Amino acid sequence: MSAIDQYLNDHPETRQRMRRQSPLDVLLAKDNDAVIELAELDPTVRASLFDQVKRESSHVTGDLYNCTAWAWRILGRMSDGSLKTMCAEPGKIVRCVAQQEISRRAKRQPQADERPPAPNVTDPNSASSAEPPNGADLLDEVLAFCKQFIAYPDTDSSIAHTLWIAHAWLVDLLFTTPRLAFVSPEKRSGKTRAQEVTAQLVPNPVNVVSVSPAYLYRRIQEKPDGMLPVIELDETDALFTGRPSETTEQIRGIINAGYRQGATVGRAEATKNGEVKTVDFPVFAAVCLAGIGNMPDTIADRAIIIHMKRRRPDYTLTPYRDRTVRRQAKPLRTRLAAWAQAQRGALAAYTDDDYPQMPDEIQDRDADVWEPLFIIAQIAGGHWPQLVSDTAIRIIHKQHEEPQSIGERLLKDIRTVFDDHTAIYRSDLIEQLKRIEGAPWRTLGKSGDGIDSWYLTKTLKQYDIAKDYGGRAHSIRIGGMPHDWGYYKSDFQDAWTRYLPAEDTPSANSVTPVTPETPDIAPADPARVTPVTTVTHFSEGVHHVPQGAKASCNEPEELDF
User: Fold this and answer.
1) Contact 126, 120 (CB under 8 A)
2) Strand locations in 220-369 (E)
3) CA-wise closest residue to 288 among 249, 205, 231
4) Number of Cβ atoms within 10 Å of the Cβ of 79
5) CB count, 10 Å around CB of 51?
6) Run of H or E including 136
7) Which of 127, 221, 375, 422 could anchor a disulfide with 545, C-beta 3.0 to 4.6 Å?
8) Which of 384, 321, 9, 311 is nearest to 160 (CA)?
9) Other CB atoms closer than 10 Å to residue 304's CB: what's the count?
C-alpha cells in the first residue's frame, strides 16, 4: 500500500473529499485544501504525492514548466518549515520549486530597518487604507479616467459605462448583470479602445475575439482570487453576421442566459474510470461586447448599448499606450477593489426594502438590466443615484426608438406608411414598404426581390394582425375602387400599442372609425356634413382613405372598430 493510500485510510474525511480525483486533479485546484492537508502533515506522503504529480503531468502535457506552475499553486501556500523539508525531497521538480519559493519569500521580507513606514490612512491610493474610498468620488475618478481615452457619443454613455465597470467588482452579489455593447456602423469608431480601457479597471478581464462555446463556459469557471471573470468579446459582427450556425447559437445562448444568476450549461462528460456524469456549468458573468452593426435581438434586449461614432478630427484624446495606461490605472483599480470589498457585507445583507426604487418608466426586462447599476449608484451615494435615474430613462427610450427585431421594424414601417390614413390595399402597402429608404424590404428574401405577400402575412400573423380574418389580408373597398385584399388601420392598433413605444403609438382616439359620412367643418356644428364621394391617393398611386372617409368591406358585420 502506498503512503498516500495509507494516509487516506487513516483520514476518511480527506478520502471523501478526494474521492475519484487523482493527485493531479487535486493539484489543478479542484481541492487545494486536501493537498495542503496532506503536504503539511506527512513528508513521506508529500514526496509520494508530488512524485506522482510529476509522472502524471509529464504524461498529460509533456511539459515540465506546466507541472512547475501547478506545483507553485500549492507550494506558495505552505509554511516556511514545510518548504525547507521539501528541499530535501528526492523529486527534482519539488525540490527546485520549493527552493525558488524560499528565495522569493526572502526577497519579499525586508530587514527591520528597511521596512517601509506604515500606510497613511488618508492616502487615497493606499490599498491598506483604514477607510475605504468614498464611492461617489471614486466613480467620478473612474469617469474622468475613461474620458481621457474614449470618445463617448454622449454623456449618458460615459455614466453608464462607469457604473458598469464598478458593478463588475460586485457582480457575484447581484441577481443580474447587463451586457455592455459597444456598436458602430463603421470601423475605427473606438469600440475596441473602450474595451481596452474597461479591461484596465475590471477584475479578471478576458479579452477574446473568436471563442467556442466550450471555452466560454469553462473559462467562466476560473475565478482567480474568488472574483468572476469579465468576458470581453470583440468582433461580434464576424460571429453573429450571416446564417446562424450551431456554434454561434450556443454562444448567443450562453451570453443571453448568463445575464441572470443561476443559469447553467448542462453537459455530459466522461470520467477517467469510463463513467459518464452530468455537469452543470454556471454561466453567470459580466460580458462586454463590441462589433460593427447591431447585436442579435435577444442580446440587445439584455444589454446597455452604446452607439459609438468615429471621432471628429478636432476632438483630441490622450494617446493610449497599454504599458502606460496599465500603470496609471493600477491605483484606481486597487481603490475600486478596496471600495467593493468594503461594500460586500452590506450588499449581501440587502432585503427587499433595501433595493433602490426604479422609475416608473423602467419596467420588466429593462428593470432587470438596469437594477445592478442603480444598486451601485445607491451604494456610492452623492449625485450618482440621480445621475443613473436620468441616464437610464434616456438610454432606454433611445434603445426602444429603434425596433428590436425585424417584426417590430415591419410594424413601425407599416405605421409610417399608414400615417393618418384608415385603409390600404396589400399590394400598395408592399410597394410603399420597399420605397422606405434604409429599410430591408427592397432586398429581403433569398432571391433578393424584396418583401412579398407571403412574407408579409407570415410575419404579421405572429402579432395577431387582422385576427378576425385568420391573420390574413381581407377584402376591402376604398372609396369607389374595386374590392381588393388589404388592411384597415384598426387591424394594427393592438399590435402597435403592445410592441412599439407608447409615446410614439397613435392613441385609440386618433383612429377614426370608417363611417358613411364625415363632418366637413368643425365638430361643434354637426348640422353641416358632406358625403365623401372622391378617392384620394397616396403619392405614387397608393390608394387610401383619409381620416373619417368611407371605406367598405364585403363582410362589414365582422369588423370591430
Assistant:
1) yes
2) 230-233, 264-270, 276-282, 286-292, 303-307
3) 231
4) 11
5) 17
6) helix 135-147
7) 422
8) 384
9) 23
Residue 227 main-chain phi, psi, to 5 deg: -100, 135
Q: How many CB atoms lie within 10 A of CB 547?
A: 14
What does the domain layout of the chain look like in residue ranges?
3-108, 135-401, 406-558
Q: Among 31-40, 160-169, 173-182, which is the least confidently predicted range? A: 31-40
pLDDT tens, residue by residue, 237-262? 888 877 788 999 999 999 999 999 99
Q: How many CB atoms lie within 10 A of CB 32?
A: 14
Sign of CA dihedral 15, 20, 23, 26: negative
DSSP for 39-89, written as a single string: HHH-HHHHHHHHHHHHHHHHHHT--HHHHHHHHHHHHTTS-HHHHHHHTT-
* C-alpha dihedral sign at 455, 456, 460, 466: negative
Amino acid found at 223: K
Q: How far apart, in Å, are the Cα atoms of 80 and each of 29, 83, 92, 550?
A: 21, 5, 19, 95
Which residues are CB-contacts of 543 (< 8 A; sequence separation ≥ 6)? 424, 425, 428, 478, 479, 481, 535, 537
Which residues are CB-contacts of 385 (< 8 A; sequence separation ≥ 6)?
356, 374, 377, 378
Q: Which CATH architecture has domain 135-401?
A: 3-Layer(aba) Sandwich (3.40)
The maximal CA–CA distance of the chain, rounded, in angstroms, is 112
* Torsion angle, alpha carbons of 139, 140, 146, 150, to 10: 120
Instruction: List phi, psi (to 5°) of 61.
Output: -115, -25
Q: How far is CA 551 from the centre of its chain?
A: 48
User: Residues, the chain, total?
Assistant: 561
Per residue in 88-100, pLDDT (tens digit) is 655 555 566 666 6
Going by C-alpha positions, the residue among 307, 308, 304 that lies closest to residue 391 is 304
How confident is residue 61, by pLDDT bands cut at 50, 70 and 90? very low
Cell 468614498, residue? 134
3-state secondary structure at position 477: strand
CB atoms within 10 A of CB 526: 9
Coil, strand or helix: which one is 21? coil
Cα 539 to its chain centre, rounded Å, is 44
Q: What is the pLDDT of residue 269?
A: 86
Q: Can you read off the three cell numbers belonging to residue 481?
A: 375602387
Q: Burial code of 225-260, b = ≥16 C-beta within 10 A, e = fewer?
A: eebbbbbbbbbbbebbeeeeeeebebbbebbbbbbe
With a threshold of 0.85, does the pTM exceed it?
A: no
